[in-house]
Amino acid sequence: MNKESKIKEIWTAYLDKSFSITVPLAAILLAFLVSGIIMLIWGANPLEAYEALFAGAFGSPNAFATTLERTTPLIFTGLAVTLGYRCGFFNVGAEGQLYMGAIAAIWVGIMLPNLTGWILIPLAALASAFMGVLWISIPAFLKAKRGINEVLTTLLMNYIAIQYFEWEIRVDHFKEGVLDYYGNVPEWGFLNYFIGLKDPTQPYPKTPLLTDNTFMPSLKRLMELPFVENLFGNMVWYQEFVKVPAIGRMTLTPVLGLITAGLLFFLLFRTVTGYKARAVGINPAAAKFMGINVPNTLLTTALISGALGGLAGGMEVLGTQHRVIPNFLVSAGFDGIPVALIGGLHPFGALLSAVFFGALRAGSNRMQVVTTIPVAVVYIIQALAILFAIAGTTIDFQAILKKNRLKRAAAKKAALEAAHAGEGEASRV
Amino acid sequence: MFEGFSSIILNIDFYAAIVRMSTPLLLGAIGSLMAERAGIVTFSMESMMLMGTVGGIIGSGLMNNAWAGVGLAIIFGVLIGLIYGIWAVSIGSHQIVTSVGLNLGSLGITSILYALTFMKGGEVVEEIIKVPTLPITKIPLLGDIPFIGPVFFNHYPLVYVGYLLVPMVWYILYKTTWGLKVRAVGEHPHAADTVGISVIKVRYQTLILSGAFSGLAGAFLSICMLGSFQENMTAGRGFIAYTAIVFGKWQPIGVALGTLLFGAADALQLRIQAMNENIPYQFLIMLPYVVTMIALISVVGRASWPAASGLPFKREEG
Question: In terms of domains, do A12 and A77 share one?
């Protein structure tokens, strides 16, 4: 058995059967416990802090909308990492794919402002997925064809993507008859027509706000559709519900994340492609022996993973922010890794852990206001949860239990034998 | 453009800058080389370095002495090394996965430690804290040699630690019994175990060294070059240092040359950035990463990994 497959077998042994919620849940609880102890040492009341955290994440419609907003990009990046890892492609580059995806969505939105939303939104989403694919293609080819470790290459591509993004949102975008921030007529060049995305009237690096035909439909818009209103219009709950401002922020994007997770589950566990991908992920040598084309499978899976990473950026632009600034999504790409790992590398697990991380982020501000515990504490909770989850998946609890059981059985048997021997002696006397 | 370029190349400061920019990479890469040779993937260097940066700032700021910062940076680095050891060596979990987890965690923890240390009356201070830095120390005789003196012997003290580290690690790895043990553990842990070498112990020892020197590298970034702390201030240098190990094929001299290459890319981009306004600076910041990527692509295939690299050691039980 070669060494790579050996590690992977240790790591994926329990994962391949079905999604187990025990280890991640235990890891999260343990992380909260240890963080609570740290808070106690610091002199803060952890119960109060966690209460504020929970209230900040789910306590009101507004809080819940924020949680959904934070969760959505994590679902997509978490799914990207999950899919890649299942095939033995550790995609650490979701951050870069996300940035490139966001650029693509903004670009489509700016270039084609007059299209109707039904065409524009899918087009922008496709463009962001395409940019994600483009961005992962170099590491994917290198891994599949030349066996170059994908962890380093995807990681380095992140830094390149972020710098490219920073540059592109600093190049003025051409706008007919627009003066720049200082009142001068700008000199337009090729870059300004086709690449630059900065709003020329702004002093800061900031893209123009997209027109509202690119906005992902929200719950509010759905409720105000004529036939929905006709159906429920005179019911009390409907009239109450429409008045809640937060439903304007609850868009279709989390639902799309849900659907994507379902599709990914289908792909991984119900199709031949998924079966091949998992086989390559568990043991490439064995997969090759079975007649699977390992490089092609790796390439396909990695490219889909990149598409998901790009979609994360596109969804954020279309659903939530509608414009980008530097650091518009703090490390949502990197956080896809813990999301996937704590989710047990299962699409539905990733979904649940994305909600967990989204809630942590949404609630942390309230926690800081109420208890003065800094927001960054959630990073400690997150780091501990991931470390415990890794340990939990590595330690073969069942083997330990079995060993203990065998030990106990052996002890019992020995005791019985001793007793029998004693009886025998007694009867002899 | 060409004139500007030649003015960079002909300037002595540029070569001194190469040495300076290579030092954090060198300290981290050479310090972690022993752990690598013992079969540990030191992808966790990034988090050790990050902890080193904040350790340097805290130690230097609290004790008002830069050397206290160096000490605390080493302690923080070793601490991460030990935590990594518990997971990678004792539990035997996937090393790259664990490293990624540690890197993410240390990002947050460094910010918290920094904020908590320099809080004023319950409020996190907004302005950047300046702490005492290590002084530039000129080596008496060597520093006066023309060209070589200013390039190599007029630097922060930690640069000289880097110079000494390369031959020392070479000597330790190839000329001492402990070095032989390290290499045996990395190539064939089970054979090493059979002849009575404690695989676990050797791996922990190398990880402590890796943590100490990566912490030192972090301290170099924070209390030599800047004297202040920024969030995520290593900016992937730990990963670049790791690539230098791959690039140098796990040989001390090769690794040192690799760090020089990446340091040169870094120094070059800073110089061009200062001189030329036509090239967007973002593309210059990209340069070291692009160089690293190209180096990685060109070298792999010829790279010779330690046979047991990344493999958890478990004694077979009969």
Answer: yes
Select from 1.10.3470, 3.20.20, 1.10.357, 1.10.287 the CATH code of B2-299. 1.10.3470
Domain check: are A380 and A404 in the same one?
A: no
Chain A nearest-CA distance from B163, in A, is: 27
Dihedral-angle region of residue A376 (phi above 0 means left; psi in -120 to 50 means alpha; beta otherwise): alpha
- ipTM given for this complex: 0.81
Residues A290 and A412 in one domain: no
Q: In sequence order, which residues have a C-beta less than 8 Å from that of residue A90 and are 6 or more positions away? A: A81, A84, A150, A151, A154, B96, B97
Residue A77 belongs to some domain of the structure: yes
Does the pLDDT at position B96 exceed 90? no
Query: Is B112–A380 a contact, with Cβ atoms under 8 angstroms apart?
Result: yes
| Residues of chain A with C-beta less than 8 angstroms from the C-beta of B123 | none
- Answer yes or no: is pLDDT of A193 > 80: no
Nearest residue on chain A to B279, judged by CA atoms?
Answer: A167
The identity of residue A183, as a single letter, is G
Total domains, chain A: 2
Asked if residue A40 and residue A159 are part of one domain, the reply reads: yes
Are B300 and A390 within 8 A, CB to CB? no
DSSP calls for A102-167: HHHHHHHHHH-TTS-HHHHHHHHHHHHHHHHHHHHHHHHHHHHHH---HHHHHHHHHHHHHHHHHH
Per-residue pLDDT tens over the stretch B273-284: 777 667 788 888
- How far is it, in rounded angstroms, from Cα A104 to Cα A110? 10
- Is there a contact between B135 and B77 (Cβ–Cβ < 8 Å)? no
Is the pLDDT at A102 greater than 90, yes or no? yes
CB A245 within 8 A of CB A62: yes
Q: Which of B91, B100, B245, B302 to mutate to test the interface with A (most CBs of A within 10 A)?
A: B100
Token code pair at residue A151: 């962890």
User: Which residues in B183-204 are b (16+ Cβ under 10 Å) and which e?
Assistant: bbbbbebeebbeeebebbebbb
Which residue from B minimizes the CA distance to A142? B297
Same domain? For A324 and A417 the reply is no
- Selection from B236, B228, B206 nearest residue B46 by Cα: B236
Q: Which of B283, B196, B211 is nearest to B27 (CA)?
A: B211
Kindly determine whether residue A379 and residue B108, on different chains, have CB atoms separated by under 8 Å: yes
Q: Which of B93, B107, B291 to mutate to test the interface with A (most CBs of A within 10 A)?
A: B93
CA A102 to chain CA centroid, Å, is 15
Residue with tokens 């927001």: A375
Contact criterion met (CB below 8 Å) for A5 and A282: yes
A381 in the same domain as A261: yes
CATH number of domain containing A349: 1.10.3470
Structural domain includes residue A234: no
DSSP assignment of B226-242: ISS--TTTTTTHHHHHH
Are B47 and B99 contacting, i.e. CB atoms less than 8 angstroms apart?
yes
Q: Tokens 């790009």 correspond to what residue?
A: A310
Q: What is the C-alpha separation between A90 and A70, in angstroms, rounded?
A: 23
Strands B123-124, B137-138: pairing is unpaired
CB contact under 8 A, B93 and A157: no
Structural domain for A152, as ranges: 3-170+205-216+251-395
A145 in a structural domain: yes
Instruction: Report if residue A177 sits inside a domain.
Output: no
Q: How do residues B194-214 score in pLDDT, each as one tens digit? A: 888 888 899 999 999 999 999
Which chain A residues are Cβ-neighbours of B307 within 8 angstroms?
A: 3
**Over the stretch A125-174, which tens digit does the pLDDT of each residue have?**
999 999 999 999 999 999 888 888 888 889 889 989 999 998 988 888 87
